[in-house]
Amino acid sequence: MSNKRPLNFLCVTTYHKGADFIKSCKAEGNNVYLLTKKQLEHEVWPWEAIDDVFYVDNWNQSDVTKGIAYKFRTIKFDRFVALDDFDVEKVALLREHFRMPGMGRTTSHYFRDKLAMRTKALSEGINVPEFTALFHDVDINAYADRVSPPWLLKPRLEASATGIRKINSREELWQIVNVLKDERDNYLIEKFAPGDVYHVDSLIVDGKVVFSRASKYLDTPFEVAHGGGVFRSATCEIGSKIDKALNKMNADVMKAFGMQFGASHTEFIASKETGELFFLETSSRVGGANLAEMVEFASGINLWGEWARIESASLRKETYTLPKVKNQHAGIVVSLSKFENPDTSSFNDSEIVWKMDKKWHIGMIVASDSSDRVMELLDNYTQRIASDFHASIPAPDKSL
């Protein structure tokens, strides 16, 4: 990589994640600077790939901007990258202040704000569950007249299933709206339609999806968060009808939202009644919950690493080439464990390609040429984990 001019990347994350992005970015011949929280300084970061680290105690946008401006005097930053959902808007503001290439605040809202997502998708002809903002009383009542419950209350800016609450009647809806008081404008409600929830993990270059892999949540994040279940996901059978439909709809969403380059994690629901697909939400980053590892074992594509290569190639105006994709199937099962260090030696099938190494957790990924075999193993492991290892804690309620 010595023939390339080193570029200066500032990776911003207020969570411990993105190690493969950092390592790949460094391997491309770049200088990598990390901006993170002071309380994360003792986490296992890939220090060998980090040129310098800057810490913040509590994020104050003005203070962070001034701090970066000070560093800019001696370091000519070429790219700011948000490695976590909660940092997308913060980094968009930094890009706009320093006139840095990449996603600005307006586009970033489509990948963070659930209301902005739905409004934009609807205007672009993409199926979304019927929804309304909680701005105007008359609109809320009109929605309740038109759309039968149950509904889901969703915070506009939380990630995953955090803060989501099911509402079963108009009376309950207004009770919640009244409790929210001046915070109601930060929420929306949408029709709760039972169905299978899917996710598509993809890479985008020059406005086009160059890689995507569709998977199905066997137990949705909402069910796991609110019911204390076991988290599971598995890649869809490649070439199946649902696989093709999901990948097409994902490409439509990326185009509609103006995603130019990077990684995305997008969720959809297939109605149990009609089979119709609806867009739920998206994000301009790699999916969490070890889904990136599952996708990598199925496809051979490391989403974090390729995202870094895409950013680097885009900056250098070089052509990005996706590595060869393999077409296996994979699945993941993860649960809280009642044991601090669970003994997983009894899980010894040859298809196991990864085991979770995290205290009070148990999890594994399996990979096979057969999607049926993946499902068979996941079902077996889920029963064993639920019987012998599983523990649960109540979900934090951030909705009220």
UniProtKB/TrEMBL annotation:
Task: List the molecular function annotations (GO) for this entry.
Answer: ATP binding; ligase activity; metal ion binding
Keyword line: ATP-binding, Ligase, Nucleotide-binding
The UniProt entry, under SUPFAM superfamilies, shows: Glutathione synthetase ATP-binding domain-like
Superkingdom of this protein's organism = Bacteria
Which residue intervals define the domain ATP-grasp in the entry?
Answer: 118-312
The name under which this protein is listed is: ATPase
